[in-house]
Amino acid sequence: MTESKQKAKPKSKSPGKSPGKSTGNSSGKSNDTTIKIAFVVNEVATEQDNYTTIRLARKAVARGHEVALIGLGDFIYDWQDGICAMATMSKIAEFADDTAYLAHLQDPEMERTRINLSAYDILMLRSDPAAELTTRNWAPSSGLLFAQLASLDRTIVLNDPSQLTDAVNKTYFQGFPGSVRPATSITREPDQISRFLDAHGGKGVIKPLQGSGGQGVFLIDEGNRQNLNQIVEAVIRDGYAIVQEYLPAAAEGDLRMLTLNGRPLKVADTYACMHRFSQTEDHRSNISAGGGVEMVEPDETALRIAEIVGPKLIDDGMYLTGLDIAGDKMMELNVDTPGGINFMEDLSGVDFSGAILDDLERKVRLQRQYGGTLTNRQLAVI
């Protein structure tokens, strides 16, 4: 991404230093809990240095934690040892930046190591199912099934995989109160899409039911309505289409607000919230689609939306999520790979990833103190 229009200026605080207490987390660098943490990604070879996963993993190894990265095709169910994986093991060290750390992980000389997940405290699911639709459609569901088995042992799996099986599909979004959602239709019938558009002023947004990063997203209005049949054909090629009412506020971009344990992530006085906006005539504001970003304070409307969706996130064990908000509606909910932490930290100097690691360490301490009597769902959002 080219961030040629970052309005927010980084604060004077040094990146990586926490300025104070975070909501629901301890402050600063925690040294009393050394943990083993594994991150599930699509493939280590396809990770990029602006991914939140890489930032979290780099900060974790700097704390002295044992970190492993597992691709969706790297799991093993062993008849004797249970859930294992061929993992890329990170050395424990201080790396200059995310680029240097990723180069370490992707070193051609790096060999994978067979690990037993029952020895790991945390398994963070950070793969993007949309990236697997055309070439490895077996991978996302397989990864979730292995994760579900891992959660039956002592490993804390986040987000909770029993619910993530349903939450990865955009139909999950329809389970939240209608007051925070745009009007929506999900169908493969072109005439039903036309009917929806006619009922909403001839304007709407069409996208694949399964997708992310602004891929396959089309804004329909009078200027391109004549191309509707071709657009619908392209969207439904691999499944259902979702069509939503157009939100005028989306013309100014959207907010990406991160939630942790069902509540907005906040460190000291700073929310993990950024404004994403298009820098071209393309309407998409996703960072992966070339949008710009700036740190912002969420307004009362955005905080109200977070408050409304919080109970369901907690009930479903959705530990870390990304709410995409335009005006008074939530456009999308990212439960797979909620990202943006690296951009937020670089713009603000606030250690959001450190706050997440503090919280993971706290969960591991609680699990140990309760002797394994807490369920994975409870630990996911406690």
From TrEMBL:
<dbReference type="InterPro" id="IPR016185">
    <property type="entry name" value="PreATP-grasp_dom_sf"/>
</dbReference>
<feature type="region of interest" description="Disordered">
    <location>
        <begin position="1"/>
        <end position="30"/>
    </location>
</feature>
<keyword id="KW-0547">Nucleotide-binding</keyword>
<feature type="compositionally biased region" description="Low complexity">
    <location>
        <begin position="15"/>
        <end position="30"/>
    </location>
</feature>
<keyword id="KW-0067">ATP-binding</keyword>
<dbReference type="Pfam" id="PF02951">
    <property type="entry name" value="GSH-S_N"/>
</dbReference>
<dbReference type="Pfam" id="PF02955">
    <property type="entry name" value="GSH-S_ATP"/>
</dbReference>
<dbReference type="InterPro" id="IPR004218">
    <property type="entry name" value="GSHS_ATP-bd"/>
</dbReference>
<feature type="domain" description="ATP-grasp">
    <location>
        <begin position="170"/>
        <end position="361"/>
    </location>
</feature>
<dbReference type="InterPro" id="IPR013815">
    <property type="entry name" value="ATP_grasp_subdomain_1"/>
</dbReference>
<dbReference type="InterPro" id="IPR004215">
    <property type="entry name" value="GSHS_N"/>
</dbReference>
<dbReference type="InterPro" id="IPR011761">
    <property type="entry name" value="ATP-grasp"/>
</dbReference>
<protein>
    <submittedName>
        <fullName>Glutathione synthase</fullName>
    </submittedName>
</protein>
